[in-house]
Amino acid sequence: MIEPLIKVNDLSFEYKLNNKTSIPVLKGVSFDIFPGEYVAIVGHNGSGKSTLSKHLNGILKPSSGDVLVSGSNTKELQMLREIRQKVGMVFQHPDNQIVATIVEDDVAFGLENIEIPAATMKDRIDYALEAVGMSEFRQRPPHHLSGGQKQRVAIAGIIAMKPDCLVLDEATSMLDTYGRRDILNVVRELNDDGMTIVSVTHHMSEVAEASRVIVIEQGQIVMDGSPREIFQQYERMQQLKLDIPVASRLARLIHEYDEEFQSDLIRNNEIIQEVVRLSAKRGVFVG
Amino acid sequence: MAGFEFELSRNITIGQYLPTGSLVHRLDPRVKLLSFTILVIAMAICDTYVGNIIALAFAICLFYISRIPISYGLSGVKPAIPFILILAVLQLMFYNKVASGGTVLVDHGFILITSDSIRLVIVSALRFIEIIFLSSVLTLSTSTTQITHGIESLLRPLKYVKFPVHEFALIITIAIRFVPTFAMEMEKMMKAQASRGAEFGTGAWWRIIQRTKDVFPIIIPLFNVAMARAEDLVLAMEARCYTPGNERSIYTKYKAQNKDYIAILFCILFASLLLLFPFPY
């Protein structure tokens, strides 16, 4: 049996306002993330999804319960550096996570922190910038980059540290369509190469990319399954004030009109394939 | 709004790096910083006409060696002119106790002007211009990144007296990194306020108080934004294993070459010339 990379065990978290009052954000959340998975965590604003993601590398500590990364508890201070090296995190705001005045130095920042010798640092920086397609920008100052490019630099800064898992905390929410598409491509490639991805998002087209979806509502997990299973539960999703992808909605509508058309499609190209399949079956050739 | 520039981020002069690939550009930033310090000290001490004219000529020569148009230096002097003038007036009025030697030129009530105080005024103005020229050459020929790396590696020996060298360098780096970000932020806020009827830069330039008051509605939101950004940045740095005070490895390392040794030797010689040679005037 494969060991889980991240094990979240009955995690509760509350923000303490003062001695008497505290606001519970997470209530008894448990789940495992296995190596190589692509997990999307969704929920509407204030559901606790971002707070949950910040527990995965020990930025926040559970009020009760445990988070284990490869068996090490995030509550143990001396393990923190190792945990953060294993689980890297990219945040929402592209501007607020770049430390240095040029791209190359920013990617080096994390490596300097974990005391990678200067001789091997260059290779790692080359590799990371190559992986996100930002090699020709290595001498540029960050304010000359677009939002999407800044986020790619932020991802490079993380993957240079060779983590096992990349957590994206709404990393695409400040980007335009093109920037988002670039990030998604990079993330998909990283996942194909075996990196575990946890993506906190409210863009349902990104969720369709994932292999597993965890839906959070009022600090609890309410759904956990493949995107296809989740998007099938149309009424439940509406109740939770969550969108479903356009492709999924379209498939449902066509299905109502034509029983034979599959209703559980979630990606745009699946719709096309289904149209081609049905047309061919009925003697009409499309495409 | 006529004539007022909202495009702040375009006018940032800090780190106005001008890559021309000259010899000065290719020098080790540590050498440039050291030479700069030595020369500035020498210029600040040297108090003769001849010495300062030689120093000014030297500063102008530096522009040619580094292939930077002298107009860049002059544009740096322009905003300093009011300060030079105010300084000159103050020195003429209040420095007569210090510089009371030489021949008396004017003695009228509390105003006492001597040839020494005239010398003081002219030499200070020259010094001002020399130092502006020097620092222009330094910042135009060295990128901000090189400057911060240079400072960090020059200060590194101080680590042994428990001076937080890396933290200090990181503070400078982050400050420089966020200058354009905040300029853009400020631009956005000014536009937002202006669209709701606030006025910026409409008063004449001599109404300093009015123009200062105009900025207040910007300052507080700017602080607010800065705090929010700082919080985010701390999280991002922590997520990348940053622990203050921890040992870190260093990515950028400099190695001084022959031309660097020659350059610093030359600067030391020139500085000692300014300091030690008995110039007649």
Number of domains of chain A: 2
Structural class of chain A: alpha/beta
Percent of residues in β-strands of chain B: under 5%
Largest β-sheet summary of chain A: 6 strands, mixed
Radius of gyration of chain B: 23 Å
Protein name (chain B): Energy-coupling factor transporter transmembrane component T
Keywords (chain B): Cell membrane, Membrane, Transmembrane, Transmembrane helix
Transmembrane segments (chain B): 33-65, 80-99, 120-143, 261-279
Pfam families (chain B): CbiQ
Tell me briefly what this model is.
Chain A has 287 residues and is an alpha/beta fold. Chain A has helices at residues 49-55, 80-86, 103-113, 118-131, 147-159, 177-192, 204-207, 227-232, 234-239, 246-257, 268-281, and strands at 6-16, 22-33, 38-42, 64-69, 72-73, 87-90, 165-169, 196-200, 212-217, 220-225. Chain A has two domains: 6-244, Rossmann fold (3-Layer(aba) Sandwich), CATH 3.40.50.300; 245-287, no CATH class.
Describe the structure.
- The complex is a heterodimer of chains A (287) and B (281).
- With 287 residues, chain A is α/β, with parallel strands linked by helices.
- Chain A folds into two domains: 6-244, 3-Layer(aba) Sandwich (Rossmann fold); 245-287, no CATH class.
- Chain A contains eleven helices and ten strands.
- Chain A has helices at residues 49-55, 80-86, 103-113, 118-131, 147-159, 177-192, 204-207, 227-232, 234-239, 246-257, 268-281, and strands at 6-16, 22-33, 38-42, 64-69, 72-73, 87-90, 165-169, 196-200, 212-217, 220-225.
- Chain A has a six-stranded mixed beta sheet, sandwiched between helices. A four-stranded antiparallel beta sheet of chain A has the order 2-1-4-5, with helices on one face.
- In chain A, helix 3 (103-113) crosses helix 4 and helix 3 runs parallel beside helix 5 (147-159).
- The model of chain A has no long low-confidence stretch (mean pLDDT 89).
- Chain B has helices spanning 23-26, 29-45, 49-65, 70-77, 81-94, 115-141, 144-155, 165-195, 208-239, 258-276, and strands at residues 104-108, 111-114.
- In chain B, a hairpin with a 2-residue loop joins strand 1 (104-108) and strand 2.
- Chain B has a two-stranded antiparallel ribbon.
- The longest helix of chain B has 32 residues, at 208-239.
- Chain B is globular, with a radius of gyration of 23 Å.
- Chain B has 281 residues and is mainly alpha-helical.
- Chain B folds into two domains: 13-142 and 254-281, no CATH class; 164-241, no CATH class.
